[in-house]
Write a structure and sequence with these properties.
It comes from Streptomyces coelicoflavus. The protein has 197 residues and is mostly helical. It has one domain (2-173): MFS general substrate transporter like domains (Growth Hormone, Chain: A), CATH 1.20.1250. It is built from eight helices and no strands. 40% of the residues are buried.
Length: 197
Amino acid sequence: MKSFVKLSLAVVFRSIVFVGLSTFIALYTQQRLGGSSAAGTAALFVLYLGGAIGSVLGGHLAGRWDRVRVCRRSYLISVFAVAGVVFAPGPALYLFVAFTSAGLYVPFSLQVTLGQDYLPSRVGTASGVTLGLTVSIGGLASPVLGAIADSSSLKTALVPLIVMPLLSWLLFRGLPEPAVHRAVQPRNDADTQVTTA
């Protein structure tokens, strides 16, 4: 249960940063690049395209390394990627948006299966929490970011998002990789026969 709670908190922090960027990235790009609405739309497109690529990449990487390690490294990369979104000058912003999206989506499906493994007797609850409750919490943070943007600037409002993947990374550092449950292979009848003299 302790591991599941840590995992859920990591998912919450991921949700906050992704929903926050989804909400404000178009407007922020327009402000930073001084472009039209097309510049903001392009940034939003890159954000979701990177997410699609990250989802596919996550399964591939988990096939080579364990899921916890993949999630941990993805979140660490996301820290620098989100910082790039907030501070990088010019069109480099788009590159960091892509890295951020991929970095946040690589762990997405892996976290669902990890939750199920941490709560094997309550798979439905685990799926509901990792896919439902914790994802929706990100939407609750958006009005807070909006209030910060109104009182200061949109850039100031996005700065706290850099910390979110860092918190997820710290939580994953304390998570174990669940033991893989393999079905017991049936024994060969020839192996069970007792040779009699």
